[in-house]
């Protein structure tokens, strides 16, 4: 896909991601209940939910790993079910579990992904070189992925997910297992992708401290969407002082002693 500028995407008026009336059940267990929301291009949205809220199920539907049972999901107006090629071409994904081939070099991991997306080897080398520079891994390109630190592996996965230049990036709990510095580094890097390159990001987490007051937030609890909007507004609407308290109020856990991480 040709690179589309932030202005072009916004003026086109289409949502980066539109989820309409989506429900999902595993047998009798209902995991998502009539979810509807839309997120704009070039924005950063945190999908906040505790374990079991339904975040991974939603990601599996957006990535078309599971067929949509009820409702529809559109990526830049392309239906994930009916026009999956067009929709998924606009999507980059960083999964919760590591998906690098540890026995391949950093460069080979990128080249493999580029080939899967039909990017020619010359163009792939060019894009990979640029991508590695941006995530400060140029000097590691010939090293095996196994030799990278956890934070470096995550940065490589993000670079790889963006190689085909998708305007929508999903990250499923991307900071799991990282130390404080590496977490902050990944969060900063992804915010820059939004501000500078106009990528739209949906970042799933159960950690309230990954939410800035200027971020958009989707609060998912037991398969239901409880709130959606600018974090500062969600906090104010709950009469709370911070996201943690707002989350506790929304989920009716305010009186519980067990805290939200
Ligand atoms: N393959 C499956 N078969 C049956 N039930 C499932 C399956 N996957 C998820 N569930 C159930 O669906 C609900 C939502 O799970 P999901 O993994 O989507 O939540 P999550 O917010 O991603 O949680 P986590 O942060 O722990 O990954 C849970 O009750 C879970 O037990």
Quick structural summary:
35% of the residues lie in helices and 24% in strands. It is of the alpha/beta class and 261 residues long. Helix 4 packs across helix 5, helix 4 (106-116) packs parallel to helix 6 and helix 8 (231-237) crosses helix 9.
Walk me through the structure.
The strands form two sheets. This protein has a six-stranded mixed β-sheet, with helices on both faces. It has about 260 residues and is of the alpha/beta class. β1 (about 15-25) and β2 form a beta hairpin. α4 (about 105-115) crosses α5 and α4 packs parallel to α6. The termini are far apart. The model has no long low-confidence stretch (mean pLDDT about 90). About 35% of the residues lie in helices and about 25% in strands. The protein has helices at about 5-10, 55-60, 85-90, 105-115, 120-135, 150-160, 180-195, 230-235, 245-250; strands at about 15-25, 30-40, 45-50, 70-75, 80, 90-95, 170, 200-205, 215-220, 225-230. It binds adenosine-5'-triphosphate.
Topology (elements, then pairings):
Blueprint lengths: L5 H7 L4 E10 L2 E11 L4 E5 L6 H8 L7 E6 L2 E2 L4 H6 L1 E4 L11 H11 L4 H14 L15 H12 L6 E5 L7 H18 L2 E6 L10 E6 L2 E7 H7 L5 H8 L11
Parallel strand pairs: 3-8, 3-9, 6-7, 7-8
Antiparallel strand pairs: 1-2, 1-4, 4-5, 9-10
Helix pairs in contact: 4-5, 4-6, 6-7, 8-9
This protein binds adenosine-5'-triphosphate (ATP).
The site of adenosine-5'-triphosphate has 12 residues, from strand 2 and helix 2.
